[in-house]
Amino acid sequence: MMSKIGGPKEFWEQRFRNSSTNYKLLARRDFSNVVNLLKKFRVTKVLDLRCGYGHWSIVLARAGFYVKAVDISSKAIRKVQSWACEEGFFINVEVCSAQEIRLVEKFDAIICNSVLDHMCFTDARKVMSNIKQILNSDGILYLSLDGVEEENEEDFIVLNDGTRKYIKGKRKGMIWRYYTNEEIKVLCKDLQIIEFKEEPNGRRVIWCPKFENFAYAKSLKRYNLRLVV
To answer: How many domains would you assign to the chain?
Structure first.
């Protein structure tokens, strides 16, 4: 079962059902740095975890990667399937929450874009454990987390671990939590952080290779990278 305060499926089903977002514009952003780094790591198979509208999945499929897209919302998954069909791509899809994902296949890279923000810290730990299990021994994780937004405090209640549960307004039913930089590093403790970038809006972008089966120094030299302390 999902945690009591995990992101509720009903919220996301309604969100994607009623959305008027022109989501195909999202794939027009410049993803060249992402694609280039994935190619540097010799990635062929990518998991787009909680894919949402699917713009990451489409961009990566266009770049020639095998992509599996997973989301808790069946509505979101149908949008991804339809979009992929329009473009002539095959994207493997599955309806599943990030907390409960159990896959036999492993991946060279996992995209985890604005996913952990929508769950409590306990669930985020569970997701990171799942990621480690399905990431190949020299695979890489892309992780992004939101900054803090100013909002009407009457719209949400704050749970024991600081997670917000929205009880009114346009986000009613949504779970959201701000993760500090130190908490993010705790979540990534079993991986090796090579980039930790904080954007002007507070969003954090992190790249974490696994580097499990060979010496760190040799790995870093091979990929021309360095660890971030």
So the answer is: 1
